[in-house]
Structures are given as structure tokens and as C-alpha cells.
Amino acid sequence: MSYKRLTPCIFIKEGKAVKWFGNDEILMDDAVSLAKYYSDQGADELILFDLSEDDDQHEQAINIMKQINRVIRIPMIAGGNIRRTEDVKKILYAGAKRAMLNFSKQGAVSLIEEVAKRFGKERIAVSLNDFDSLFKQQHLIDAYSTELVFMHRLDLDSVKNITNIPCVVVTDTMEESEIMKILKGDGVKGVSGLYVSQTDMNFNELKDRCVKEGIRMTSFESMMEFSEFKLNSDGLLPVVVQNYKTNEVLMVAYMDEEAFYHTVKSGKMTYFSRSRQEQWVKGETSGHYQYVKSLTIDCDKDTLLAKVEQIGAACHTGNPTCFFQPVVGTDYDETNPLQVFENVYGTIADRKKHPKEGSYTNYLFDKGLDKILKKVGEEATELVIAAKNLNPEEIKYELSDFLYHAMVLMVERDITWEDIIAELADR
Q1: pLDDT digits (tens, 9 = 90+) for 371-410
Q2: Helix axes 337-353, 392-412, angle to 10 degrees
Q3: What is each CA distance from 367 to 61, 133, 372, in whole angstroms?
Q4: Separation between Cα atoms, residue 215 and residue 181, nearest integer Å
Q5: In this structure, are residues 124 and 99 in contact, taking their beta carbons and an 8 Å threshold?
Q6: Tens digit of each residue's pLDDT (9 = 90 or more) over 203-232
Q7: Comparing C-alpha atoms, which of 5, 81, 62 is closest to residue 38?
């Protein structure tokens, strides 16, 4: 039996999260906050449906998708109002893992081949309203997509016999027993819909109930038991915590057995407080969660290395890392490329938010987008000219100028380095 997922869905209409197809009752005014709640509460992925009725609403929905992608820590699948290749591109550029094409809509069948060839079939999901659609278009679906999204309840046993593509079932049932039945279906990788999209849903608790029903739920799995680790004199395992992007050491803490398994299960770093003699989830009060990327034990099995995605500051003092007080020597890790890019970007973003008199950066922002684009073009031209010369120092100088102005453009258009890195990683 494969691992199963809990996948809440958000229906976006006029910038708000509404309840269901054809039901415009507002579930929450702020769709971004709702998505973050789902992510923080243990959802495995998220489906977004754009229910917009015109181009302005469609653009608004795309912008909301971008905002959601920045605050969630789970994959995002998005669809709705896709009529042309450009719509697929916008959804993928907004951060979606896959764009979802509804085969019940006119033009979707002819569109899927084009977008699959352009973006890759692994970036395409197909949503179906009925079993007949799958039967009629089986060859296209198998050839040009890697995921099915079924609306409402279908004959899942028959689905298994026709296609090997894993599917997510979006259902309007509010019965937990029905959710369990769907998850037990062969070929079903996850369930979505009204029940799992409740605004007070605790996904980890629901996963516990699923496990009791014999359903294997998606989570981290430890390849070692806690009993295999060598503990210190207090019966605890020291944990060195590292930023997974920059390799910066953030903090050192300790785990007991309960904290270790809670970390593995929830995906959030959980420790044992020696002073309070109790378990604590990092960020539970501050919001500065640490999301697990990997856990590695050292050669002696007595120290755990945790690579995490750190939200906010790691240190209770407000510093990014607990290691900020020099004792001997100098910290020479100031040229970490990613840190340099993020620091420069942060300074530019701060200038926009808090203008400084005489700042060249603020001069560019004051002049507006056209001026920024003109400077990016000029710097690109100067870089091309420098590259024709034999002096590498000139190239480095011009390339640095170009990157700075490119970052000004990024801030102006609300693009982050995380957006760029994620795009490059997907190529």
C-alpha cells in the first residue's frame, strides 16, 4: 500500500476563499492566511482552484497564488480558468508544482499536448468530472500528464484498471468514514475537498486516525530507531541545527525520544527543554518555526545534524543565529554567495520600504519602472561590451553592476531570490 496524502483545497473568487464550486459563501477573506494555516497544521500539499469570471479576477487569483507560494511549505497544484498556454505559464511561474487542466472544458484536450511539450508532462495534472472522460481520453492523459484530480466520488476500482497515474479525489463529503474509504482505494494517493479543507482541521490528528484504520500516511520516516543513538549523561541527544540553504549554524538544542519522533512525524523541529523539563516545538509561540529538510546522525551516533528551513530568527534575541558573539578570530564566511545575494537584496528592499536621502537605490525607485528597465538594459549592454575585451576585472565589475540593477528590478516587481532559485531548480 502506498503512502497517502491529505490535500486541502482553496477556491479563489474575487480575491477570497469561497466554500465550493457554485457556492460563493466566503470561507475566509484572506486566502493566503488560510493556505498558511493548512501548511502549518500538517497538510501534505494544497490544491488551488481559480473560479474567476474575467481577466482582472484571473490576474488577482494569480497574484494570490504567488503570495500563497511564499508562505506555505508544501507543494501547490493550481488550476481553473486555463484557456491558453499563457495561463499555464502564469500558474507555474506563480510557484505551482503542477498546473491542472479541466478536461470537461472546451479546448483542454487540444491544449494538453502543447503545454506538456513546452513545460514537461511532470508539470501537468488533469482534473476530471466523470469516469467517461477518463475512458475517452485515456491515451492523452497517460501521455501528457502525471497526476489525475477527480471531482467528487468515482468508481476507483475501475480507474485502477484503466490508468496507472496516481489520483487525488476531491469530494464534498463531510463524513470521515467516507474519507477513510477513499484513502484505502488502490491508485488513490490523496483526498481533498470539504472535509479536509475545514478551517479548524488538524491534519496530524487526522493522520493518527487514518493510521489506526491501517492507512499509511505521508510523513518523514526515520531509518534508525531512537534507541540506536548514544545519549549524553542526561539521556538526551544533542542537535546541531543548520540553515539548509546557506549551511549557517543556527543553534544547538536537545531531543528526548518523544521530541525526536514528534519531529519526524510533524516535520517541525521539536526539542526537550532542559530548564523546563518539557517538550517544545520551535516557533510555537514566536512563529519562527524550523521545517525539517533532513536529519543526519554523526559517525559516533551521538549528535544529530538537522538541516532546516528557518522562519524568522533562530535566536530568542532576534538574531538570525544564536552564534553571533565573537570570542576569538574573525568570521570569514561573509562571502557565501547566497548570503551576499540575500543581504544585498534585503538592503535594496529595505531602501524601498524605508527611503534614505541621497540613496541611488531610492533614486531608481522614485523614477519608476521605466527608469529601472532602462538601467538594466544599459548595464546589460555594458556587460556585453566588457565581455568582448580581455580584462576579466572589467567583466566582474560590469556583471556586478548588472546584478545590482537586476535586483532593484526584482524588488520593484516583487520577485525574490527564492523565486529565482526555485525556477532554476525546476529546469
Answers
A1: 999 999 999 999 999 998 877 888 988 999 999 999 999 9
A2: 50
A3: 29, 53, 8
A4: 10
A5: yes
A6: 988 988 998 999 988 767 677 889 999 999
A7: 5
The length of the chain in residues reads 427
**Of the candidates 340, 343, 42, which has an alpha carbon nearest to the alpha carbon of residue 201?**
42
pLDDT for the residue numbered 417: 86
Task: Tell me if 149 sits within 8 A of 141, measured CB to CB.
Answer: no
Distance CA 41, CA 205 (A): 9
What per-residue confidence (pLDDT) applies to 418?
A: 79
3-class SS string, 107-169: CHHHHHHHHHHHHCHHHEEEEECCHHHHHHCHHHHHHHCCEEEEECCCCHHHHHHHCCCCEEE
pLDDT tens digits for 240-261? 999 988 788 999 999 999 999 8
- What structural domains and CATH numbers belong to the chain? 5-212 (3.20.20.70), 226-310 (3.10.20.810), 333-426 (1.10.287.1080)
DSSP type of residue 83? -
User: 370 or 84, which is more confident?
Assistant: 370
**Residue 310 grid cell:** 528557518
> Long-range contacts for 260-263 (Cβ within 8 Å, ≥24 apart)?
260/222, 260/226, 261/222, 261/226, 263/292, 263/295, 263/306
Other C-beta atoms closer than 10 Å to the C-beta of 102 total 19
What's the pLDDT tens digit per position in 2-40? 688 999 999 999 989 999 988 999 999 999 999 999 998
- DSSP H helix total and E strand total for the chain: 15, 17
- C-alpha distances (whole Å) from 28 to each of 25, 35, 422 are 9, 10, 29
CB-based contact 47:75 (threshold 8 Å)? no
CA angle (155, 159, 165) in 5-degree steps = 145
Query: Is 219:290 a contact under the CB 8 Å cutoff?
Result: no
Distance separating alpha carbons of residues 165 and 261, to the nearest angstrom: 32
| Over residues 353-377, mean pLDDT | 93
CA 43/CA 196 separation, integer angstroms: 9
CB atoms within 10 A of CB 288: 16
Say if CB 272 and CB 279 are below 8 A apart: yes
